[in-house]
Amino acid sequence: QVQLVESGGGLVQAGVSLRLSCAASVPTFSRYNMAWFRRAPGKEREFVAAISGTGGVTDSADSVKGRFTISRDNRKNTVYLQMNSLKPEDTAVYYCAATVKLTPRGPPLSSKSYDYWGQGTQVTVSS
Fold first, then answer.
1. How would you classify the pairing of strands 121-126 and 10-13?
2. What are the CA-CA distances from residue 71 to residues 11, 37, 40, 76, 108 (Å)?
């Protein structure tokens, strides 16, 4: 059974940085492609960033490119989301997700491809 636990959320002012962490309880973490999604109030869940099992391939949504960076440490079974220059529109519950599925381009970008999910961590950015 795969368990994912997010941490690092909070209430911050616009312009500052936060780093989210997601600790995974899996026997072979490097088999799993990992991603971050978010759900803002009243909106659908949306893709934020993804990373392949080895960390060699990453992708991110246009709305966060240049501000957010996904990374992973396979020795610690942890994936990170470094969020810089936060904006009020980044306010959402952020979810970590895992899958062994892969696409020709790399880790999947669709939430439907992810089999395991964390409970989420709230990020609130005030203006």
1. parallel
2. 22, 14, 23, 12, 16
Please check whether residue 97 is in contact with residue 46, taking contact to mean a CB–CB distance below 8 angstroms.
no
Strands (E), 55-91: 58-60, 68-73, 78-83
* pLDDT tens-place values along the chain, 127 residues long: 899 999 999 999 999 999 999 999 988 999 999 999 999 999 999 999 999 999 999 999 999 999 999 999 999 999 999 999 999 999 999 999 999 998 998 999 999 999 999 999 999 999 9
SS3 at position 88:
helix
Separation of alpha carbons 94 and 37, rounded Å: 6
Q: How buried is residue 99: exposed, middle or buried, by Cβ count under 10 Å (0-12/13-18/19+)?
A: buried
Residues 4 and 22: their CA atoms lie apart, in Å, by 6
